[in-house]
UniProtKB/TrEMBL annotation:
<protein>
    <recommendedName>
        <fullName>tRNA (guanine-N(7)-)-methyltransferase</fullName>
        <ecNumber>2.1.1.33</ecNumber>
    </recommendedName>
</protein>
<comment type="pathway">
    <text>tRNA modification; N(7)-methylguanine-tRNA biosynthesis.</text>
</comment>
<dbReference type="InterPro" id="IPR055361">
    <property type="entry name" value="tRNA_methyltr_TrmB_bact"/>
</dbReference>
<keyword id="KW-0808">Transferase</keyword>
<comment type="similarity">
    <text>Belongs to the class I-like SAM-binding methyltransferase superfamily. TrmB family.</text>
</comment>
<feature type="binding site">
    <location>
        <position position="153"/>
    </location>
    <ligand>
        <name>substrate</name>
    </ligand>
</feature>
<keyword id="KW-0949">S-adenosyl-L-methionine</keyword>
<dbReference type="Pfam" id="PF02390">
    <property type="entry name" value="Methyltransf_4"/>
</dbReference>
<feature type="binding site">
    <location>
        <position position="117"/>
    </location>
    <ligand>
        <name>S-adenosyl-L-methionine</name>
    </ligand>
</feature>
<feature type="binding site">
    <location>
        <position position="43"/>
    </location>
    <ligand>
        <name>S-adenosyl-L-methionine</name>
    </ligand>
</feature>
<comment type="function">
    <text>Catalyzes the formation of N(7)-methylguanine at position 46 (m7G46) in tRNA.</text>
</comment>
<dbReference type="InterPro" id="IPR029063">
    <property type="entry name" value="SAM-dependent_MTases_sf"/>
</dbReference>
<feature type="binding site">
    <location>
        <position position="68"/>
    </location>
    <ligand>
        <name>S-adenosyl-L-methionine</name>
    </ligand>
</feature>
<dbReference type="InterPro" id="IPR003358">
    <property type="entry name" value="tRNA_(Gua-N-7)_MeTrfase_Trmb"/>
</dbReference>
<dbReference type="GO" id="GO:0043527">
    <property type="term" value="C:tRNA methyltransferase complex"/>
</dbReference>
<keyword id="KW-0489">Methyltransferase</keyword>
<keyword id="KW-0819">tRNA processing</keyword>
Length: 220
């Protein structure tokens, strides 16, 4: 690992906002921290945490947890949270594929996926963060009626996600694929533009949004 990356990783490890899945003590502390809040919202693949932080600033009565595997990006997020003195966000370094091992069943209000890698090749489809295998894990941690939000610049990923939602009989689409700019200005999908959103917009990309709700009774 390059020295600057190592330093940022060390900064992440020291931050009071940071929790690492490889550290048993931190895992225990994270569980305790989450249990104190009635409402917990998770951003999966949060990168530098722009969305998690914007959500935390807007909604003071919930806890916002950004999850990513890259410690140096999370170190950046922790520094911003620290500078803003936020009390209601945390950052968790963990592989999303194992998220159901770390978070309690039925404990999460909603999940945000902001600009996940689209993995356009068919043979990589299982790695997409909205593949059926992962939706099943999100189902385990979501409360009944919990919501999954996706923002992406990839129409193919949005379309794939819609197909996966249709296959998952425990999910019901709320918002069909739409251009995020067509949503009301106060919609949370328009709260902030992350680095990736800005990058895609600067190249003229359309930003898509869709959402689905967890349902207990598939007949609903
Ligand atoms: C394209 S970036 C988007 C970052 C951020 N959401 C944004 O919009 O700026 C995708 C992020 O997802 C993270 N990621 C991808 N797959 C992951 C996985 N399986 N577990 C944890 N993080 C993952 C990457 O490390 C990266 O930071």
């Amino acid at each position: 690992m390059a020295r600057s990356k190592q330093k940022k990783f060390a900064d992440f490890d020291k931050s009071k906002y940071a929790f690492d899945y490889k550290n048993e003590t931190q895992l225990k502390l994270l569980k305790e921290a989450l249990a104190k809040w009635d409402s917990v919202v998770v951003e999966l693949g949060c990168g530098k945490g722009a969305y998690t932080i914007a959500l935390a600033e807007k909604n003071q009565d919930g806890l916002f947890l950004g999850v990513d595997i890259q410690g140096e990006r999370l170190a950046f997020a922790c520094k911003v949270a620290e500078d803003k003195k936020l009390s209601n966000c945390r950052f968790f370094r963990a592989p999303i594929q194992r998220i159901d091992e770390f978070l309690e069943p039925s404990s999460i209000d909603s999940i945000w996926l902001t600009f996940p890698d689209p993995f356009p090749r068919l043979r990589q489809a299982k790695r997409r963060l909205t593949s059926l295998g992962l939706l099943q894990k999100y189902k385990e941690i979501l409360e009944n009626e919990g919501i999954i939000h996706l923002k992406t610049d990839s129409f193919e990923l949005a379309n794939f996600t819609k197909e996966q939602i249709d296959k998952a009989n425990y999910l019901k689409a709320i918002t069909d694929i739409c251009n995020v700019d067509s949503l009301p200005p106060d919609h949370e999908a328009r709260l902030v533009q992350t680095d990736f959103e800005k990058k895609h917009r600067s190249k003229g990309a359309t930003i898509y949004y869709l959402s689905a709700r967890l349902i207990e009774d598939p007949a609903q």
